[in-house]
Every structure is written in C-alpha cells, then in structure tokens.
Amino acid sequence: MINNLQIGxxxxxxxxxxVDAFEKLSKTYNLVELSDANLQMVSAIITLGGDGEMxxxxxxxxxxxxxxYGMNRGSLGFLLNKYDPNNLIEKVGTAQIVKxxxxxxxxTTNHNETVEAHAFNEVSLLRxxxxxxxxxxxIDGVLRMNALHADGILLSTPAGSTAxxxxxxxxxxxxxxxxxxxxxxSPFRPRRWDGALIxxxxxxxxxxxxxxxxxxxxxxxxxxxxxxxxxxxYLDFSLxxxxxxxxxxxxxxxxxxxxxxxxxxx
Length: 266
Description:
By secondary structure, the protein is mainly beta. The protein folds into two domains: 2-101 and 239-257, Probable inorganic polyphosphate/atp-NAD kinase, domain 1 (Rossmann fold, 3-Layer(aba) Sandwich), CATH 3.40.50.10330; 103-235, Probable inorganic polyphosphate/atp-NAD kinase, domain 2 (Tumour Suppressor Smad4), CATH 2.60.200. It has helices at residues 16-26, 51-60, 88-94, 164-167, 251-257; strands at 6-11, 31-33, 42-49, 68-72, 96-100, 103-109, 114-119, 122-127, 133-139, 142-156, 179-189, 196-199, 203-209, 216-220, 223-225, 228-235, 241-245. Strands 6, 7, 8, 9, 10, 11, 12, 13, 14, 15 and 16 form an eleven-stranded antiparallel β-sheet that branches. Strands 2-1-3-4-17-5 form a six-stranded mixed β-sheet, with helices on both faces. β11 (179-189) and β12 form a beta hairpin. The longest helix is centred in the first third of the chain and has 11 residues, at 16-26. The protein is elongated and about 60 Å long. It starts with 5 loop residues before the first strand and ends in a 9-residue tail after the last helix. This is NAD kinase. Its cofactor is a divalent metal cation. It catalyses: NAD(+) + ATP = ADP + NADP(+) + H(+). One of its GO terms (molecular function) is kinase activity.
C-alpha cells in the first residue's frame, strides 16, 4: 500500500515553484528524493517540474515497474497532471494507467564502438557540420531508401509524437496505435518526402553514407553519441513504464486533441 511505503520524488531544484511544492508536500506525505531512494521500496514516484523532469524520472526508474505521477510545476507539462497538493495518495491510487515502452538505440561509431541507450520520446540523427547528411534506410531487413539527403531523421514513439516529431511536421500518433513515426529533418532529396508510419515491432537500420566527410550524431532523448556510422532502433518491450493520470486528465484525449487546432484560452 502507498501509505506504508515511501514515495520517491524528483523535482526541478532550479525552479522555485517545484522547490516550494516539494517542501509543502514533504510536510504531509512520506516523500524522499528519488536520488536517495531505494527504488525497490518506493511504491510510486512523484515528479514536480515540466516534461523534462518526467523524462528524467522515466530514465532513472526504467528498470523498475514503479508508476510515475507527475504534477506540473514547469511550463507545458504535456505528460503531467495539474498541480494540486490535496489528496495525493487517493489520486495516485485511483489514477488511470498509461503504459509506455522506450525505443532502444544501438549506435556504432566511426571507431567501431557500440553505444546503447533508450528513448521514451524519440531517437534523432543530426548532421554535425555544414555538410548535409546522407542516410540509407533499411526496415526489417528491406532497403527502403538508398540515400536520404537531409539535416537528419528521427524515429518517434506515440508519446513523443507531439514533441520533436510534431515540430518536424510529423503526424501525431494516438497512444493505443500500433505505429511509430519516421520523419526526415529538413529533407533535400527526395524532395518533399513526408516520412513514413511504420509498425511498432519494426527494426530500423540507419547507415550513414560518407560518414568521414559528413559526420552525424545520434540522440536518444538526452543521450548523444557523436560521429556514428550506423544505428539500429527498435521498441524495447522488456521495459514497461506506467504513467499515472487523473481521471479528468486523459493523456489519450490530449494526444488526440493535438491533431486539431486547440486554443486552451478560448
């Protein structure tokens, strides 16, 4: 039971709103800073800040099934609930559960070093210099594009489709869909290529052409690997994270609503 165990808390220590919220909640609930917590003894994780704090919490706890309940003490807070310090235990206990699975990135550098990382939003490949990137695209062993000439390319989860993917003019994907979004970043050739929706069980292989002349970096959420020559990306179903949302704060509804122009002040 949540009442009998600690609640881990991750908050933005550079935000006065988040610090004040942590101090207020600590007076009522058995909170412990997540960095000091034994994740095996924590029944739930609370985040105070913006979506960046939520991503930090997801990565810090990715090897556990501890659910995460976020409260917005930042700006947009798309993955968070509205901040309300009252009845926190009850809200966590009755919240709706959304299951997330991260992308796994396996990057090979120009020195043949292998680096692995996870991304709950997206894996993006970006050119490092003024030289445009050239990227070969293979999906499930089938060559799909000989050479994409672009600033880069990204593969996004449904939860991340409203972030960088959306800024790159990619589609917003409902959370319960069976799809991932593969989007070019400022494509030059093929002209006006709009990207692709692919099945979430797909394995994507991206090979950097002319990698010595046209260096490219790979970024899994905030983990960057420089000077890569190839990347393999797939959804890692071995890691399941649960996000908790108030009953009147459906993440599915907000993701769906983002497909339409919506003025929250109207």
